[in-house]
Amino acid sequence: MTGGTDGHAEDQGRVYQASGDQHINEHHHYGGGGPAPGGPDSVRRPAVGRSPVVLRDRNEVMERLRASVEAERGGEVYVLHGMGGSGKTAVACALFQEIADEQDRVALWVNAADRASLRGGMLAVAADRGAGDGELLAARNGLRPAADLVWRYLDRSAEPWLLVLDNADEPEILRDGSWLRTSPRGVVLVTTRRAAARWWPGAELQHIGVLPREDAALVLCDLAPDSGTPEQAAQIADRLGRLPLALTLAGGFLSHQVLDPWTMDAYGHHLDGDERVQLIDRGADALSGPDPRHLVGLTWQLTLDTFEARGLPEGAMLLRLLARFAAEPLPLSLLNHADINNVLPQARTETALRALLDQSLSEVVDLAGARCVQSHGVLLDSVRAATSVDLLPALDTTAVRLLDAAVPRVPDAGPYDPQLRLLVPHVLTLVRRIGEPLAAADALAVATRLSVALHRTGDYLSAWETSRTAADLAQRLLGQDDRLVLAARSRTGRALFRLGRYAEAESVLCDVRAMQERLFRADDLDTLDTSYGLQLVLGNLGRREESLALLRTVVTGRQTTLGPAHPLTLRARASLLEMLPASEVVTEEDGALLSLPSECARLLGPDHTVTLGAGHNHAWALYLLGRFDEADEEIRLVADAYVRRFGPEYPIVLAARQLFSRTRSALGHMDVGIELMADVVARRERGLGPGHPFTVASRRLLDEYRSGRWHPPQPSGG
């Protein structure tokens, strides 16, 4: 479809054997509470919230890493692996800071914990290395291979670089998109818990283990110098398994006791006296067990018990609430909402959060323009495992409500919003973990609405992944015939259509529609919504008669169920302006269809998305009718409004400018029409790729202009 509103689719190095484990530790401090100078930067600064001040026992691994990033070298991958909390990120952060501060090499940092974060970070790397907005938009929307784009710009980088892929604990994510490659222009450093060599072919593997006893004791002495002797610190370190993260938390606990300071002996007495920490007493040997997370969890539980004893139960409850979400940055704005009163007073949330920060249980990070709270995954796993089952219903309900409040109630079209993507891992984690059907249904509803919001900002790939994953997870508890599961499947089909995967979209939407008709009837709102998505697919497959027939059923059904003034009804009627032949537009609804834009403006306002879409399709109908002056003026106004709303590269903007080129040419301004179409072709080639059907159609139209073979439609009355 090339007239009115187009359908818009959317390896290696060497291996060496270390003579022994590398032992490191991470020391932390907090600054003044504000962002670092220059503001947050997701690829030019480590996304770790705070940088390590001191690393212990890191000389050998740091020397090897420094040598790898000499100016003459490149093309290698280094993998730091070890259990959670061992300080892999601290080593990477220290090297990153050295490169950023002292060398003529660019340092780039990407969070590789999940698909969305990895894709978003790598595309930010491509932007840093010079990729244009159109290419980035196309890659973000799944219309061209994102990894190829990123590595093309990394290979072309004017400066050598260090690329850190942090928290790559699911290496299949890197493999699926071919994100991990080598380049002569730079060095890649990966941090991960996954040590199997099969995940890292050709890479240099380096294990990051626990600290030697002396260094572990020094960590506690550095953080809490007045709490005890080095030997007392060594005894505590043994009981903590000499894990850097546990030592940091213990040292932070000891250093923050003001009213009733604890000594290391007192801390050790609590460890010895609490049978829950017997595993910790085994020391480093116990860390080789099958589930070492329970070991450090006991240390954190001691801190939570102190919250309770000191009259701050909200600190423990806030951490239990955070443990219901994913171990990813969570926007702080979620916690500043009245629904949190269900588990802790909103007025005490600030105090509770500061307690977590003071005790090194959480950190504040800046990501995608949002201030977020993040806690270590091992910590959250331990807290979640220790949470009483009696608390789970309230915690899960509150988590769902907080996410529900963060997602737009009625998602509207708009420019790409990276903060929406931050919510994806959290809502999917809730759908995965909740075991009660009603709460799971609520979480699925939020996930589906988030998918809609992502879809309407043009992030079609994230929209597809969110709705598809949520439906798969919820189906196990709710069943495949559940209304909400089917609604999520329907959104999956809609996203597939925008990604240009028409055959898959048709299959999904046909199956969902058939089930909805059987369960809820053909005039049910969910069935009608799926039917509307299906007619878009059929129209782009060239089956216009089927598409038009289905569209008419949607218009009739929505008029009956929602009323004639509802935005969804008006949107369906506006689609008739695009789908109907010119001969039928003038007679449809006794001629009233041609006055739809003014009706939308009266009912919804002149800047409403549906009003703009109606104007776009109305201009197309006028163009087919040969009323070129009227069509030219209307589409010019619509195109200008689109640019203000969405930016110049947005697909619907290019569709409007393509129609504008037609009206200009039809009025005899062929030079302007050619100039407009050349711009559309160039932008579509950058954004969609040269082989995309929309690009091909635009190039064909431009060729017709230039060759003189193009002719405007003949007037057909009206």
Automatic annotation (TrEMBL):
<dbReference type="Pfam" id="PF13424">
    <property type="entry name" value="TPR_12"/>
</dbReference>
<dbReference type="InterPro" id="IPR002182">
    <property type="entry name" value="NB-ARC"/>
</dbReference>
<dbReference type="InterPro" id="IPR053137">
    <property type="entry name" value="NLR-like"/>
</dbReference>
<dbReference type="GO" id="GO:0043531">
    <property type="term" value="F:ADP binding"/>
</dbReference>
<feature type="domain" description="NB-ARC">
    <location>
        <begin position="60"/>
        <end position="196"/>
    </location>
</feature>
<feature type="region of interest" description="Disordered">
    <location>
        <begin position="24"/>
        <end position="52"/>
    </location>
</feature>
<dbReference type="Pfam" id="PF13374">
    <property type="entry name" value="TPR_10"/>
</dbReference>
<dbReference type="Pfam" id="PF00931">
    <property type="entry name" value="NB-ARC"/>
</dbReference>
<protein>
    <submittedName>
        <fullName>ATP/GTP-binding protein</fullName>
    </submittedName>
</protein>
<dbReference type="InterPro" id="IPR027417">
    <property type="entry name" value="P-loop_NTPase"/>
</dbReference>
<dbReference type="InterPro" id="IPR011990">
    <property type="entry name" value="TPR-like_helical_dom_sf"/>
</dbReference>
